[in-house]
């Protein structure tokens, strides 16, 4: 059994397989996930686990160079946006697109991690950086 790091075997495998510029998505429980995109469902109950808790754990294990958010988060869930920015290194680029564009962009994600989050626009695409 692993002593440290992410215990969820599916998430651990996806992160280990990522190359530079590959992407994964972390989403709220209402984010539609297209057929053919790997879904890792960690939702246990309405609101649990929270999006920000899952993001925090992933960020400890994944080198990030860019994130993509829906522009609507700026007006409809600014508290969540502040929490996201609080976890990110200032050197991480943030791009905003409409929610519809966001859903199109997530189609190339290697996986979508579905949380129990129930607040609007609590979704993020993480683009892998390199550690050298």
Describe this entry's structure for a reader.
This protein is of the alpha/beta class. Helix content is 31%, strand content 21%. It has five helices and six strands, in the order αββαβααβαββ. The protein has helices at 9-17, 51-61, 73-76, 78-87, 99-105; strands spanning 23-27, 39-41, 64-70, 93-97, 112-114, 124-128. Strands 2-5-1-6-3-4 form a six-stranded mixed β-sheet. 29% of the residues are buried. The mean pLDDT is 96.
Topology, pairings included?
Blueprint: H1 9-17, E1 23-27, E2 39-41, H2 51-61, E3 64-70, H3 73-76, H4 78-87, E4 93-97, H5 99-105, E5 112-114, E6 124-128
Parallel strand pairs: 1-5, 2-5, 3-4
Antiparallel strand pairs: 1-6, 3-6
Helix pairs in contact: 2-4
């Amino acid at each position: 059994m692993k002593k440290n790091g992410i215990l969820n075997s599916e998430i651990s495998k996806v992160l280990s397989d990522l190359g530079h510029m590959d992407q994964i998505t972390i989403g709220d429980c209402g984010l539609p996930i297209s057929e053919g995109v790997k879904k890792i469902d960690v939702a246990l109950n309405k609101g649990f686990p929270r999006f920000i808790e899952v993001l925090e754990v992933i960020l400890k294990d994944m080198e990030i160079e860019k994130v993509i958010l829906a522009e609507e988060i700026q007006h409809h869930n600014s508290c969540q946006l502040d929490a996201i920015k609080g976890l990110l290194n200032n050197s991480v680029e943030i791009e905003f697109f409409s929610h519809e564009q966001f859903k199109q962009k997530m189609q190339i994600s290697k996986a979508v991690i579905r949380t129990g989050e129930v607040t609007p626009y609590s979704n993020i695409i993480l683009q892998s950086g390199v550690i050298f």
